[in-house]
Amino acid sequence: MACEDVVFGEGPDDLLLQELDILELTTEDESHLMLKEWPVDAILEEIDFTLSEFWVQVHNLPLAYMTKANAEKIAATFPGLVELDFDSEEPVRWNGVLRMKVKVNVEDPLKTGFYLQRKYKPSSWVSFKYERLPDFCFHCGRLGHVNKDCKFRDDGRKKGSYGHWMKANQLKKASVFKGAPSKNPNFHKRKEGEEEAARSIHVEGASAKL
């Protein structure tokens, strides 16, 4: 559910906006509350409520791929990157997940993950989990309604693609190991072969192959 209520005031309170951003607002009935700043040169109908921000966790990614460069490549499959949970140039994380704050189109099905093509091993599934994810439809993967109210039942979408497993517990900034960056030539290489690596990612959900 996208809330388009507007609060009027004399001007923005930066501290309040920061506090609201930290809260990642979800209402008591598990609806998602979207708050947008009103540009001074825009009318109400021009304010865009299609994009909202979520912290997304990337699970089942092999350790060698957990670099900042790879996180940016994965984040590029979303409409926009807001923040990466990294604190140095090329750290490798200890806790087994990458974490990024991205913009999500609330009118599209949620992205569930992608298949990672590995050079010497079979392809593996890498899943996305969303922090503070409100109730959503397990059939079509969209926010704003649940299964019984779904109008997209005939879209040919595979059953079982969406479920409660896409909800993640909120994490604090994770510890990182500031060691050498990954040397994996099939994914991390940023010059030669960069496009080949990008084409090896297939994103399930609203978008297709990169």
From TrEMBL:
InterPro entries: At4g02000-like, Zn_knuckle_CX2CX4HX4C, Znf_CCHC, Znf_CCHC_sf
Domain of life: Eukaryota
Gene Ontology molecular function terms on file: nucleic acid binding; zinc ion binding
Protein source organism: Corchorus capsularis (Jute)
Presence of keyword Iron-sulfur: no
Keywords: Metal-binding, Zinc, Zinc-finger
Keyword Metal-binding: yes
Name recorded for this polypeptide: Zinc finger, CCHC-type
Region annotated Disordered, chain positions: 180-210
